[in-house]
Amino acid sequence: MSQYFEVHPLNPQPRLLKQAAQILHAGGVAAIPTDSSYALVCHLDDKAAAEQLRRLREVDDKHHLTLLCRDLSELARFARVDNRQFRLLKQGTPGPYTFILEATKEVPRRLSHPSRRTIGLRVPDHPVTQALLAAFGEPLLATTLIAPGETEPMNDAHEIRGYFGKRLQAVVDAGACPMEPTTVVDLTADEPVLLRQGRGDPARLGLA
Fold it and tell me: How does pLDDT run across 71-90, given as a tens digit for each residue?
């Protein structure tokens, strides 16, 4: 079975998150809570871990993966952002929004959209996610934790561990998540395009 870390949802134990971060640095895939739902995460630069993450979700290379970043300064390393885009990003971060942006060379080509060279990025507003990102020391590659054949995210850490078994190397349990996907906004065009309305209110970004 995977390593199981039961942490406080508001004040997670640093020792446990450090252990989870070590598993991720070693090439593991983990289930973690976020401000929208549980997510599968792995090391950005670990090709084998990224492939395992896609296999667990049963998605191909056309499925947008997301980078979880601690703040906007970190996000700017991986995406080309102009002043207009930056103002919109400030309005939606941290929060349950995923922004589609043009990827920089910092993003491995295999992780960006195969035809568009874009990447999804977000800054989550969850104490455990933020603390894990701090312990890990860099962004995490992520995708919503939806079991193959299902449409709703999994929300119970014990069920997640039981379902995936040894295919997951770690589960971080901070209790139930909102269980609603992020709002996705494409910022690569002249005007922002709302691709999916989720937990994040589009009005916060000035979108109808």
Answer: 999 888 899 999 999 999 99
For residue 17, give its domain range: 3-205
The 10s digit of each residue's pLDDT in 106-128 is 887 777 666 678 999 999 999 99
Q: What is the CATH number of the domain that holds 9?
A: 3.90.870.10
What's the total number of domains in the chain? 1
Q: How far is CA 124 from each of CA 26, 33, 130, 139, 162, rounded to the nearest angstrom?
A: 23, 10, 7, 11, 26
Write out residues in the chain with pLDDT < 70, as ranges.
Answer: 112-115
